[in-house]
Write a structure and sequence with these properties.
globular; alpha/beta; 12 helices; 18% strand
Length: 309
């Protein structure tokens, strides 16, 4: 692969000493190495900073230490905004990247139309804290149709995007990770303004443990997934929260940057809230949303009631 553009990695850390070295070792083995790794540390009280300093002798690491806790969203916001690369990859402190992670994503970004914001994300291999495989997230093929991605959620640590997408992100990112996660915010912005490419390939190990900020996988839930795709349906559903997030984004992004067809679709979806409940009659009549997504969303909302089993 020949690439003359600068590659940045945005890494947010917080008390990550337990798994951080494994992540950094996996970055060292990449077939294409980054030009910079920008780390925003959210007031770690363990050995995280020292580990980063040790690895800065082998990797181009720049550490930014917060004066006070920013939280997940704002910590990633700081890391991304301090990146100077043409391409930026998101990185979590406890995962392990496969050797071709960077190369594969940069190759995809290089082939995508260059005049629009671009985002690519891949699948991941879900493991326990010891990297024992629990689940492989699989797609039968790559997805490039934005309509088929309306109910998906691009996982932050699998994302890579170009400078143009950074430039269209609203200046203030959502503050609350539990209400509007940073990765969903980036993902929906890309759907509104540019090109999104979902790779069927799994390019990293996504480690699950008690301190994960997002998904927490239990043995029982993994058994449940084998007999009934409840969790898959829950992931795919159009939710009240997603509708509210769409509405916020439409007001926050420069209208000139939004693709008209997608704006119409987002507006139609965001108007389907009815006293914090989904107006399914209105939603099922939206023209731009494929039938398969409408059905998955309806079933997914039903599956929501089983998510805590």
């Amino acid at each position: 692969m020949t690439n003359t553009k600068k590659i940045s990695i945005a890494l947010a850390t917080y008390n990550g000493e337990k798994y951080l070295s494994e992540l950094l070792d996996s970055l060292l083995t990449q077939t294409v190495l980054p030009d910079e790794i920008v780390v925003s540390d959210d007031c770690s009280k363990d050995n995280t900073i020292q580990i980063l300093r040790d690895y800065s002798k082998k990797l181009p690491i720049k550490v930014l230490c917060n004066e006070s806790n920013l939280g997940v969203n704002k910590n990633f916001e700081k890391a991304v905004k301090m990146c100077s690369g043409d391409y930026i990859l998101i990185c979590d402190q406890d995962d392990v990247w496969l050797p071709n992670n960077i190369e594969k994503k940069i190759c995809i970004l290089e082939k995508m139309p260059q005049h629009l914001p671009m985002l690519v994300f891949s699948q991941s291999i879900v493991t326990d804290k010891n990297l024992r495989i629990l689940q492989k997230r699989k797609l039968s093929k790559d997805i490039v149709d934005w309509r088929l991605l309306l109910t998906k959620h691009g996982q932050g640590t699998t994302m890579a995007f170009n400078r143009m997408l950074c430039n269209v992100l609203p200046k203030q990112w959502p503050n609350d990770f539990n209400i509007f996660p940073y990765d969903y915010y980036i993902y929906l912005t890309a759907l509104l303004t540019g090109n999104v490419y979902t790779s069927k390939d799994a390019l990293m190990f996504y480690r699950t443990h008690d301190n994960n900020a997002s998904l927490k996988v239990s043995k029982f839930k993994n058994i449940l997934k084998q007999i009934f795709p409840t969790y898959k349906l829950y992931q795919d559903r159009i939710s009240v929260e997603m509708m509210n997030n769409m509405k916020w984004l439409l007001s926050a992004i420069d209208e000139k940057k939004i693709i008209a067809e997608r704006k119409d679709c987002f507006e139609a979806i965001s108007k389907c809230n009815n006293e914090k409940k989904i107006d399914w009659i209105r939603f099922l009549n939206i023209e731009n949303v494929p039938r398969s997504i409408k059905l998955r969303s309806l079933l997914g909302t039903m599956a929501f009631f089983f998510k805590d089993l």
